[in-house]
Specification:
Layout lengths: L10 H17 L4 H18 L5 H35 L3 H37 L13 H21 L10 H9 L10 H12 L10 H14 L4 H13 L2 H17 L6 H23 L22 H5 L18
Length: about 350
């Protein structure tokens, strides 16, 4: 997430200012597309410097670049679901089946790219702070967001690698490391995200969590905390976990809660996180709509299930005028007797 303020004369000073000056400004910009494009541009420049002082900046830029990969995954998946839907209703399903196969191939490749970029973030995190999960690092306040996002990248690396047929063979133990690393962070101070990360791992990895804690209850509580603070990333984790687990009830609740949170507004200081979170949750909605209707969530229908009646929140009579009984048309001129 480093902007184009990068130049040859300040490269050696970038890493020191990234967390304290640049990152807060970038986090406030609610445009994932712009952030991911800048991340893809700056990573090669900084890695070419081979300078340990740039580790944090590289990690931020890689996180942004990974968002581009995530968007490509979503688009390919939706195209695959659309082709499958059309193949089921078409008189010539072979054509749509071929398109579904091609979209599935592009989806797998995008998963691989996303896995690789998130893995690089994870490796940069451990290079900077040591092996995650062994002991809690000493973090300054401004470093906690970087550490948190690095943990999320580790979790995403495992998920995307699995969807890419384990092409990178990422150690599945990374998920448990993420869970232990998240325990080092204050969930209340970080919008419920550490608690949501831990609960997501408990859901995905059987036996990973404490027996006396319902991971779905903790996930919902963490998402509610984030909603109340105006940052929706924990809610996005809630929706993702529900979608991956096939928990339609939890997914519907997550989408509905997010719609309410959007109406109350999010934190202006965290526009980028909220834009990414909204896109993540909207994708879960699009998956449902695409599989059932062949298209993405209709405009103005986010939060509604396909086929549900559209709720009208205005007075139809006031808008169109009250109905009046039909009366016979009067003749244009009086009839006269011959």
């Amino acid at each position: 997430m480093l902007w184009l303020t990068l130049s040859a004369c300040v490269l050696s000073r970038v890493d020191n200012s990234t967390l304290t000056q640049v990152s807060p400004e970038v986090l406030a910009i609610s445009d994932v597309g712009m952030a991911c494009a800048v991340g893809e541009t700056t990573v090669p420049l900084m890695t070419a410097m081979d300078d340990e002082k740039l580790r944090r900046s590289i990690a931020f830029s890689l996180i942004s670049a990974a968002m581009c990969s995530e968007i490509r995954v979503w688009d390919a998946e939706l195209e695959r679901r659309q082709a499958v839907y059309l193949a089921g209703i078409s008189s010539e399903p072979a054509t749509w089946s071929a398109l579904a196969t091609d979209a599935a191939a592009r989806e797998t490749r995008a998963h691989l790219e996303a896995a690789q970029r998130n893995l690089w973030v994870w490796e940069a995190l451990e290079a900077e702070y040591g092996t995650v999960g062994e002991e809690c690092p000493e973090l300054e306040e401004e470093e906690q967001v970087l550490y948190l996002m690095g943990l999320a990248s580790g979790s995403l690396a495992v998920l995307h690698d699995g969807a890419a047929d384990h092409a990178l063979d990422i150690n599945q133990g990374v998920a448990r490391q993420v869970e232990r690393g998240a325990a080092c962070l204050d969930s209340g101070a970080l919008w419920g995200v550490p608690g949501a990360l831990r609960a997501s791992v408990w859901i995905a990895v059987p036996g990973a969590g404490p027996e006396d804690v319902d991971p779905w209850v903790q996930l919902e509580a963490s998402a509610m905390l984030g909603d109340s603070q105006g940052v929706w990333l924990a809610r996005a984790l809630h929706a993702q976990a529900a979608g991956a687990a096939g928990n339609s009830e939890a997914l519907d609740a997550a989408i509905t809660a997010h719609k309410v949170a959007m109406e109350t507004g999010g934190s202006p200081e965290h526009g980028l996180l909220n834009d990414y979170s909204h896109r993540t949750i909207r994708h879960e909605s699009d998956r449902i709509w695409m599989s059932q209707t062949g298209h993405r969530t209709e405009s103005g229908r986010f939060g509604s299930q396909p086929g549900a009646e559209l709720e009208v929140d205005f007075d139809l009579d006031a808008f169109f005028g009250p109905e009046t009984p039909e009366t016979p048309a009067e003749p244009l001129m009086e009839e006269t007797s011959p």
